[in-house]
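Key result, reporting period 2: structure in, sequence out.
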């Protein structure tokens, strides 16, 4: 009688033998993805917990940097413009790494993929603990972007294992939505950690999460996946052209509004370089028999509509990530005073993800996208009536709508692309994943650039208009100056100096009011764009029904004519 402990682990079997142990529904749907056997429920819980841990660990570091960029600038001794490079360089390396990582999984297997990604991430977190200069922090953020792309994929694959076959699509939607939770979680937790232990404490906590993820992944491995020879020599040429092209575009979108578009010459040169590199990459891919990025397939009407819808959603969702938080900080509120708002946003995101997963209807995938855009339009319209007295509690409802919408759309948008891949072009999985990732990242940067640019332009306009309307010949202005100067009457005996202080206070109030009006203009613009987008996606949703009814009427007319 053989000892059960001497039997080989099914995960260690060669793929050909392991495949024989699988039922048809347990086999992977796409090359490079792990098999999905029917696990016991306890193992499913373990897979789910590891998936959440790994996915959140991969995205939390950049979220912490984004949420505390001003504090980090002071810690490193650099300006805010220089510090802004840190989250941007993460996106630069993160956006198109799937161009190589998907094929790496297909050719070398999941275990090596997991070991390398987690090993690199632990090394980056360890380097962060000892990084003491801006240059070293910039390098670690760049490497973290590469590792973060792999960590997100790894967490996603683990979470899929937690769901039985009948509910696997729900796991897919939850997995893709996890990364969006990182920013509100970072804003809720990082400020306390900074107060207690400074940036060293934050880096150590990130290192701890990375080591915990490493231990969890090695304790419970993913099922095997079929391996094939995936790489072609021209793949690396495409990556060498495409990746720096996207990186330069990210730099332009991320920094343009801070250094101002027409003031820094490097913005123009970077944009030219991006266009040339991307054009060269597309030229190479267009003429390949087996392209890494199938431009002909991506140029189809269905994919173009999907890309535009995702891009629009990412842009208008900047109302929450950049607009509302920037507005409240402009009103003088700190992150500690916004915790109530961040809790509302996090809970609304969780609710949106749950509703998206539970209400998934493969026949009506554009419907939740249209609803999400409508909710964004309503929320942004409510925010467009803000005043200098607006506080976080006044934005709870509108920001909950936007957070719910941000989680509601992502799953159906991903499913539209996956359906296109599985039903029409399974070989184009790399093309879709890369496109989805690049549009998500670039769309987020474009949204922030749009909000910042429009807000700056409109603030200058409103400031000019308000200043022109204030003259010392107006009795109400004189009275207001006397009231403002009177605030210093107990500490300032000189009437002339009191008048000067009163004038400075008035100028501050004018500037604050100009900022409020500028943000209201931004919110109204976003509301209008979201409303138009909702109407457009609603038409896309109903168009098959309209065409079917039209075809039925034409058929009835033809039959009637033939009968006569």
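The corresponding designed sequence is given below.
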């Amino acid at each position: 009688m053989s000892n059960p402990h001497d039997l080989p682990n099914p995960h260690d079997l060669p793929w050909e033998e392991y495949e024989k142990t699988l039922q048809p529904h347990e086999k992977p749907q796409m090359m490079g993805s792990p098999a999905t056997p029917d696990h016991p429920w306890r193992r499913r819980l373990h897979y789910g917990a590891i998936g959440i841990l790994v996915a959140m660990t991969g995205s939390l570091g950049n979220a912490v940097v984004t949420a505390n960029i001003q504090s980090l600038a002071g810690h490193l001794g650099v300006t805010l413009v220089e510090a802004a490079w840190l989250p941007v360089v993460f996106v630069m390396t993160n956006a198109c790494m799937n161009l190589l990582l998907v094929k790496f999984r297909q050719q070398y297997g999941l275990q090596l993929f997991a070991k390398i990604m987690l090993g690199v991430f632990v090394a980056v977190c360890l380097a962060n603990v000892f990084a003491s200069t801006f240059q070293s922090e910039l390098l670690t953020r760049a490497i973290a972007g590469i590792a973060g792309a792999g960590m997100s994929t790894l967490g996603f694959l683990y979470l899929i294992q937690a769901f039985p076959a009948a509910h696997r699509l729900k796991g897919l939607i939850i997995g893709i939505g996890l990364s969006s939770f990182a920013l509100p979680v970072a804003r809720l937790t990082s400020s306390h950690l900074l107060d207690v232990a400074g940036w060293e404490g934050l880096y150590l906590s990130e290192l701890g999460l990375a080591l915990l993820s490493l231990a969890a992944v090695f304790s419970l491995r993913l099922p095997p996946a079929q391996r094939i020879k995936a790489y072609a020599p021209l793949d690396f040429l495409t990556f060498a052209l495409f990746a720096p092209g996207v990186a330069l575009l990210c730099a332009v979108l991320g920094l343009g509004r801070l250094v101002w578009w027409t003031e820094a010459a490097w913005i123009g040169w970077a944009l030219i370089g991006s266009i040339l590199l991307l054009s060269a990459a597309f030229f190479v891919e267009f003429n390949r028999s087996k392209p890494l990025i199938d431009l002909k397939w991506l140029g189809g009407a269905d994919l173009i509509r999907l890309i535009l819808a995702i891009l629009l959603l990412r842009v208008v969702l900047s109302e929450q990530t950049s607009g509302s938080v920037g507005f409240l900080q402009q009103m003088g509120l700190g992150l500690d005073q916004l915790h109530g708002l961040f809790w509302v946003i996090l809970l609304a995101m969780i609710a949106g993800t749950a509703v998206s997963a539970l209400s998934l209807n493969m026949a009506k995938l554009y419907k939740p996208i249209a609803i999400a855009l409508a909710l964004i339009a309503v929320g942004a319209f409510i925010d467009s009536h803000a005043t200098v007295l607006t506080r976080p509690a006044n934005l709870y409802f509108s920001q909950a709508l936007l957070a719910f919408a941000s989680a509601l759309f992502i799953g159906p948008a991903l499913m539209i692309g996956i359906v296109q891949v599985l039903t029409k072009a399974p070989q184009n999985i790399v093309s879709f994943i890369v496109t989805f990732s690049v549009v998500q990242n670039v769309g987020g940067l474009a949204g922030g650039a749009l909000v910042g640019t429009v807000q700056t332009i409109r603030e200058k306009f409103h400031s000019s208009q308000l200043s022109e309307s204030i003259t010392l010949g107006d009795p109400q202005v004189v009275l207001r100056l006397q009231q403002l100067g009177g605030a210093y009457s107990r500490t300032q005996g000189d009437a002339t100096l009191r008048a000067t202080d009163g004038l400075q206070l008035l100028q501050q109030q004018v500037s604050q009011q100009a900022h409020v009006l500028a943000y209201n203009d931004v919110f109204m613009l976003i509301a209008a764009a979201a409303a138009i987008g909702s109407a457009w996606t609603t038409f896309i949703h109903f168009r098959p029904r309209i065409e079917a009814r039209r075809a039925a009427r034409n058929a009835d007319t033809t039959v009637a004519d033939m009968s006569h």
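The mean pLDDT is 80. The two ends are 84 Å apart (CA to CA). This case is discussed further under Risks and Mitigation.
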